[in-house]
Design goal:
Elements (H helix, E strand, L loop, with lengths): L2 H26 L15 E2 L3 H11 L6 E4 L2 H4 L11 E3 L10 H12 L5 E6 L6 H4 L6 H7 L4 H6 L2 H16 L7 E2 L5 E2 L5 H19 L10 H10 L5 E6 L4 H9 L3 H15 L1 E4 L21 H11 L12 E4 L3 H17 L8
Parallel strand pairs: 2-3, 2-4, 4-7
Antiparallel strand pairs: 1-5, 5-6, 8-9
Helix pairs in contact: 1-8, 9-11, 10-12
Length: 356
């Protein structure tokens, strides 16, 4: 074999391997850039929700009446469970309230108009200066998307090949294998864990929240309401439906024991001052008392997300009566009095928590 023949053979083999790998990535579409959907990619690993969902919005048809935004908790709400509205779930892990504006503006750009409704999930632990003061946005992801040959470079990436292979294995098994997986309809689901593991993971979250989020470093951000107000003012024709994300009763108790109840009350009052009302799910009730509705006491399973969507869609007959209260300026003080009574009970005795 001559040097020329050898070089041509190697070049041909390398080219074939690269093309096969790129074709595999295109077929599996782990970064949601191409829209392929089939039985071998119907379980998707989370790479980076900000990138994946933004790619989906930019490169696929995007025409929605409503937007749902929030942190990882909100990712577990099925966008198809909202009645009478076509909703897109643009929630992402660890989303800061400072990011909401850029997410809405980006989605509006590709929707071609303001949304009729924006469902905005709010987490109390994100109300501190530590968790909400730093300016954050989608700018970094937009800059990446605007780079030349963005999709081609991602298609030829070895990391993309590995993600595609992971998705293939999970799709063949047809089951969630991670804390959060998606299907091709942008619906998140989670691996089910046994009761004892739920208890252990809840204990770890309580310890983490007491130390990192509810502890001495916590300081309520006095600009929190202004961040929300800016989002609302930039979307004057949009109806905002604000809701709080429900944490398990033991985690709520940890908040009370950490002395954060006055901050929680201020948080609710700030939300009401901006939006006029808030659907509050974050207090002890029959759903939050059942640890089986969570896999770590912090993140609820999608079934609970369905209850939230139904309550926000005004289908109360499908939701436990004590799950979710609409708080307005008129009933805020009464609602806070109810929270006070719950908190006193928590201080006197351990909550009655089950795992069903």
């Amino acid at each position: 074999m001559t040097h020329k023949t050898f070089a041509y053979t190697v070049f041909t083999m390398v080219t074939a391997i690269v093309l096969l790998a790129a074709g595999f990535v295109y077929y599996m579409d782990p970064l949601w850039m191409f829209g392929s959907s089939h039985a071998f990619n119907d379980v998707q690993t989370v790479i980076d929700e900000r990138q994946q969902k933004s790619d989906h919005i930019r490169f696929q048809p995007f025409d929605y009446e409503a937007l749902l935004i929030g942190s990882s908790r909100t990712t577990y709400i099925n966008q198809h469970d909202f009645a009478n509205e076509k909703v897109y779930n643009y929630a992402a892990s660890n989303m800061s309230v400072r990011e909401y504006k850029s997410f809405i503006e980006y989605a509006k750009q590709y929707n071609g108009k303001e949304f009729d409704t924006v469902y905005i999930g709010l987490d109390f632990f994100k109300s501190s200066i530590q968790e909400s003061a730093a300016p954050r946005s989608l700018d970094h992801y937009i800059e990446k998307q605007n780079e030349s040959f963005y999709r081609l470079k991602n298609t030829l990436s070895w990391d993309s090949v590995k993600y595609a292979w992971t998705n293939l294995k999970m799709s063949v098994a047809d089951t969630a294998m991670e804390e959060r997986n998606y299907n091709r309809e942008n619906v998140a689901f989670a691996k089910k864990v046994p009761p004892e593991q739920i208890r252990k993971q809840t204990e770890k979250k309580i310890e983490k929240f007491k130390e990192k989020f509810y502890g001495e470093s916590y300081q309520y951000n006095p600009e929190y309401a202004n961040y929300l107000r800016e989002v609302k003012e930039m979307n004057p024709h949009t109806k905002f439906v604000a809701f709080t994300t429900p944490i398990s009763t033991p985690l709520f108790q940890a908040m009370v024991e950490s002395g954060r109840l006055p901050d929680y009350k201020r948080w609710l009052a700030d939300i009401v001052s901006v939006f006029g009302e808030v659907h509050n799910f974050m207090y002890p009730n029959s759903v939050t008392d059942d640890l089986g509705n969570y896999f770590d006491g912090h993140h609820f399973y999608p079934e609970t997300g369905t209850l939230i969507a139904q309550k926000l869609s005004n289908i109360p007959e499908k939701v436990p009566a004590d799950f979710g209260m609409i708080v307005t300026g008129d009933n805020l003080e009464d609602h806070l009095a109810i929270i006070d009574s719950h908190s006193k009970l928590l201080a006197q005795e351990k909550p009655s928590v089950t795992i069903n």
